[in-house]
Amino acid sequence: MPRHFDTTYDVVKELKPSYPVYCLRPDILRDAASRFVEMFPGKVLYAVKCNPHPEIMRYLHEGGVRHFDTASPEEIALVRRQFPGMDAYFMHPVKSRDAIRSAHRVFGIRHFVIDTEDELHKIRAETDEDPDLVIHVRLATPPAGAAYNLSAKFGARPMTAAELLKKVDSYGYKAGLCFHVGSQCTSPNGYRIAIELIRQVIDFSGVKIHSIDVGGGFPGQYMNQRAPGLDVFMDEIKDCIRWLGMPDITFMCEPGRALVSSGVSLVTQIQLRKEDQLFINDGIYGSLSEAVTGNLRFPVRPMRIGGDFDPEETLEFTIYGPTCDNMDVLPATVNLPADIREGDWIEFGHIGAYSNALATHFNGFFPELLVTVGEAFPFIDGEFPQVG
Ligand SMILES: *Cc1c(COP(=O)(O)O)cnc(C)c1O
Predict the structure, then answer these.
(1) Among 96, 263, 271, 280, which residue's CB has the most CB atoms within a 10 Å radius?
(2) How far is the CA of 36 from the centre of ligand 1 (A)?
(3) Do 301 and 250 sit in the same domain of this protein?
(4) Which DSSP letter does residue 247 get?
């Protein structure tokens, strides 16, 4: 069990950490999971890649998550080690033959994804033509307000998807459709566009569909990316489902970010100040890569023990990570007290998604200490804390 503190400030006061510390909020993670499970009209699969830490998975499971979206035998094993017998789905459109075989034979996986006929043949061969599978056809969707496009690499075009459904059906498999609108999708309309496209594909194929998986993409809240609440997305999706009018279909979704982003913050320490440049102990090769890849700006809280910051004056600081690489710098400046200095701490909020999951050991820096805290990172009435 990780050590527990009431507040992040207590973490700083007691540990005076010169290494980065992940601060998990068990209540927030449980609530995010249970809200999602309550509101989504179908099965909620947690996308393990977003944050595979066992403590995170534990809180999501306690919040009611019972299904897991995985993309590799390693992720499937991770789920099964922690939750024996729990449902895992192999939702990657390109798998090695060995991965398909071990997923099926060792782990008894029944759900697979394809976006080509070749992959369908691989699955058929490596599962010894076991007919008792659900094969989901991944559909490419048009970009619609997401920070990441996940249809450039994967996804069949509508006509191809319809042909694939027919093939899946002809082999006696249950046929499903899935898509991913792109991660950090701030527009509910992205799901509507995708579901309307799905309707055309189903009609064109004439195949009886077993399930529709609306993927992930549900957004977190960041300084430069405010998104409507989860209820707005759920209303849109429920409306689309009514419009589809297919009561026999099982609906599924694969949220990653929306379940974990607000439930974790990261405490970093300033190792040196050079005028308006701050050198901290984590960066883009550690927990903060999404500042670059997703252009996300995380909310921050400065912390100091044994004294206060000057409340009057703030400055825009450039933040450098600990590695010797030139690129290890946050792309946007961060507003902090003008008198911040070496030894002070900066807490980054809403850092639960794609942070520790993507951290490297580059240059000998690797963030790994994890504690739990009782207080939420402040986000009140849609506002992050003011610095200064
Ligand atoms: C990454 C991924 C997810 C999770 O996406 P989020 O944007 O974190 O919700 C879900 N499904 C698939 C297939 C993915 O690749």
Answers:
(1) 263
(2) 15
(3) no
(4) T
340 within domain boundaries = yes
Q: Which atom of ligand 1 is nearest to the CA of 185?
A: 7
Interval between CA 179 and ligand 1 midpoint (Å): 10
Range of the domain at 322: 4-23+262-373
| Dihedral (Cα; 335, 338, 344, 350), 10-degree rounding | -10
User: Has this prediction a pTM greater than 0.90?
Assistant: yes
23 assigned to active site: no
* Tens-place pLDDT, residues 111-128: 999 999 999 999 999 999
* End-of-domain residue from the set 259, 276, 299: 259
Selected catalytic residue, list 178, 185, 240, 324: 324
pLDDT for 287-310, tens place per residue? 999 999 999 999 999 999 999 999
Give the whole-angstrom CA distance, residue 86 versus residue 79: 7
**CATH code for the domain in which residue 273 is found:** 2.40.37.10
Assigned domain for 57 exists? yes
- Over residues 151-166, mean pLDDT: 95
**Pocket of ligand 1 from Cβ distances under 6 Å:** 47, 49-50, 69, 91, 150, 180, 183, 215-218, 254-258, 353
